[in-house]
Amino acid sequence: MFFERHGGGERAVLVHLEGQEPAVREDPEEFQELARSAGAQMAAFVSVPRQQLTARYLIGSGKVDELAQLVKACEAELVIFNYSLTPSQERNLERAFECRVLDRTGLILDIFAQRARTHEGKLQVELAQLEHMSTRLVRGWTHLERQKGGIGLRGPGETQLETDRRLLRVRIRQIRQRLEKVRSQREQARRGRRRAEIPAVSLVGYTNAGKSTLFNALTTSEVYAADQLFATLDPTLRRLPLDDLGPIILADTVGFIRHLPHKLVEAFRATLEESSSADLLLHVIDAHEPERQLQIEQVLAVLGEIGASEVPLLEVYNKLDLLEGIEPHIQRDAAGKPQRVWLSARDGRGLELLRQAIAELLGEDLFAATLRLPQRLGRLRAQLFAAGAVQGEAHDEQGDILLQLRLPRAELNRLVSREGLQPQEFIAQHTLQ
């Protein structure tokens, strides 16, 4: 007799495991927020004190019987565990509860599936779901069994389970090929931005830290922002002009979470590479969150996993409007470089300080001086004005143009080189400090 999985539902019993090691312990409030974000209606919340996990059910058989009675009494259609279940544990629990069982990874995958809007986002979610599902194929269609041997059963053929697995492998391979194309397209776009000397800044942080609200406030965009986990799934890029630096590219990315499933990190690698290839990361932190230090550690762990741990990072403490007695300000290190910016994206307090800190960190090699140009270099003068680099203009006795400039040195070198001049020689000869 084969086992059919039960259908899904929205009325759920949430099971949280207490007494685990700090490294694997989950936050019960975050668990409930995840369930709400997925659209579940919480029928009951059960904390199970369990120090040693069992191979059959994860929890003890006595607790399984209690939960089975609770599921029937609540008429629940779903049981969600705040822990990762093995495929066999999931099946055993479904038999015992006679309803669908979901673990933490499956819950997060479901939220991602609801949030994906772009074609790329949907492909990434489907890849993660298929890889998760490939270990959980449980249907066995005996009428298609052709590998037992014996009279009338010899010859080619495969079980339905093997057919499902083969089709899954084919689909996974197709999705990976498509995502590889997306990856190469993103890399091509990044190369174009690097050639144009446009710095890239990426927003990273724990889910629901306020990244999209900050993104909208800085760029006057209308990216979807809500007080829920994983409101943003698809990355968004916008051009942001900074007074002292010129234009930059600002990217809003998917939020991280405690114990982010590895399958999701792999599936979203093309998207997360926006962070690993950025010139600066803005680590948005919920200043009002009591466990913000744990969240910071989780974000840093994921950044290390995607190869972004060496990218310069500026901490942005958001939601200052929920705190009392703290005004927007910049915290600096011993060398005077910006280290943290305290602000409120919701009411806009501190946004100018953030722009200033970004310009300081990206403009370390900034040319800020007076440039003396002969009259024959009028085209270079026009290009400097077009780049928004001219702070002031005057003329000396010889009729040369004196331009007060502020722009990245690499950009100045590029414009000077276009005139057939050597940048270092030209700047040394014609600059007045």
From TrEMBL:
It holds the Pfam family GTP-bdg_N. Keywords: Coiled coil, Cytoplasm, GTP-binding, Magnesium, Metal-binding, Nucleotide-binding. This is GTPase HflX. SUPFAM superfamilies: EF-G C-terminal domain-like, P-loop containing nucleoside triphosphate hydrolases. Monomer. Associates with the 50S ribosomal subunit. The keyword Cytoplasm applies. The keyword Protein transport does not apply. InterPro entries: EFG_III/V (IPR035647), G_HFLX_dom (IPR030394), GTP-bd (IPR006073), GTP-bd_M (IPR032305), GTPase_HflX (IPR016496), GTPase_HflX_N (IPR025121), GTPase_HflX_N_sf (IPR042108), P-loop_NTPase (IPR027417). It is found in: Cytoplasm. Residues 165-192 form a coiled coil. Transmembrane segments: none annotated. Belongs to the TRAFAC class OBG-HflX-like GTPase superfamily. HflX GTPase family. Its main location: cytoplasm. GTPase that associates with the 50S ribosomal subunit and may have a role during protein synthesis or ribosome biogenesis. It comes from the Bacteria. It comes from Pseudomonas fluvialis.
